[in-house]
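Narrative of accomplishments. A recurring question from our advisory board has been how the design workflow behaves on a single, concrete structure rather than in aggregate. To address it, we present the structure tokens for one chain from the evaluation set, followed by the sequence designed for it. No filtering or post-editing was applied between the two.
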């Protein structure tokens, strides 16, 4: 699958679009370059929310790899978005060209960095990476598949995976999450949530018998990404993901002016629910405006 990005990510084709090497190569040859800004964090979030979904062809049992190709420093928080992917077991390879920020590439990429970070001076030099990168990718897939088959496999069937995430009772600073538990209750759930436009991820750990949680102390009028991940003794189930926005704070209403004099006036209004203070700003009307 492939997505291009600038200020707005765009899916060029999904994982399920082509089934042969020749079809993929023809799609690459037909690709039109998308210029513009460098919002890498937004692009990584797009890949997680749109491209690594079963509907887009992502096989639940398959290893998930993301190869980031960038020629500039990100204009948003790429590290936060990358950490979310890595927390979900998705491995990131970072390839920089020309003006890419080496420190940012190393932040975004998965460990070990000597295998996942590459940087070249110009686009034609990318061809020099193909052989090594191919070998590294194939080796990593084999290593991870073997490790998970013998250690802590990700199992995403109905036995180990919750379903039907519902987000309700959304206010300016809280929301309620509920889901249907898997057939086999997990040992615990990890609930991870953070603002989609950047911010520190927060996490709540719940006992496996619980299937709902109230998230509090959120920021008003903010879009949040939430993930519910079941954890077992020897496996991790497929996580549920959702997006919702908290409500804006309530505003004062019905502003009235009274007790006018040559140098004073009185204001009154209906209170804003939950407000502890008010800031009142006053300035002279511009010339020509109504007094």
């Amino acid at each position: 699958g492939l997505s291009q990005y600038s200020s707005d990510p765009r899916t060029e084709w999904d994982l399920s679009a082509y089934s042969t090497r020749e079809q993929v190569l023809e799609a690459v040859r037909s690709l039109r370059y998308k210029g513009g800004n460098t919002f890498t964090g937004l692009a990584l979030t797009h890949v997680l929310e749109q491209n690594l979904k079963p509907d887009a062809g992502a096989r639940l049992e398959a290893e998930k790899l993301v190869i980031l190709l960038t020629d500039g420093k990100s204009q948003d928080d790429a590290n936060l978005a990358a950490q979310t992917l890595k927390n979900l077991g998705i491995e990131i390879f970072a390839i920089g060209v020309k003006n890419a920020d080496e420190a940012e590439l190393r932040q975004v990429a998965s460990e070990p960095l000597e295998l996942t970070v590459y940087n070249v001076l110009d686009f034609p030099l990318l061809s020099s990476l193909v052989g090594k990168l191919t070998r590294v990718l194939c080796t990593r897939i084999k290593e991870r598949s073997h490790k998970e088959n013998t250690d802590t496999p990700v199992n995403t069937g109905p036995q180990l995976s919750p379903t039907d995430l519902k987000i309700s009772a959304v206010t300016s600073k809280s929301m309620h999450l509920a889901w249907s538990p898997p057939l086999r209750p997990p040992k615990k759930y990890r609930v991870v949530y953070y603002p989609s436009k950047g911010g520190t991820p927060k996490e709540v750990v719940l006992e496996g018998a619980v299937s709902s949680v109230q998230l509090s102390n959120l920021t008003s009028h903010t879009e949040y990404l939430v993930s519910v991940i079941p954890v077992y003794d020897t496996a991790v189930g497929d996580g549920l993901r959702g997006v919702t926005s908290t409500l804006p704070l309530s505003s004062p209403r019905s502003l009235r002016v009274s007790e006018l004099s040559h140098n004073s006036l009185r204001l009154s209004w209906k209170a804003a629910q939950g407000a502890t203070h008010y800031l009142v700003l006053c300035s002279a009307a511009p010339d020509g405006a109504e007094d």
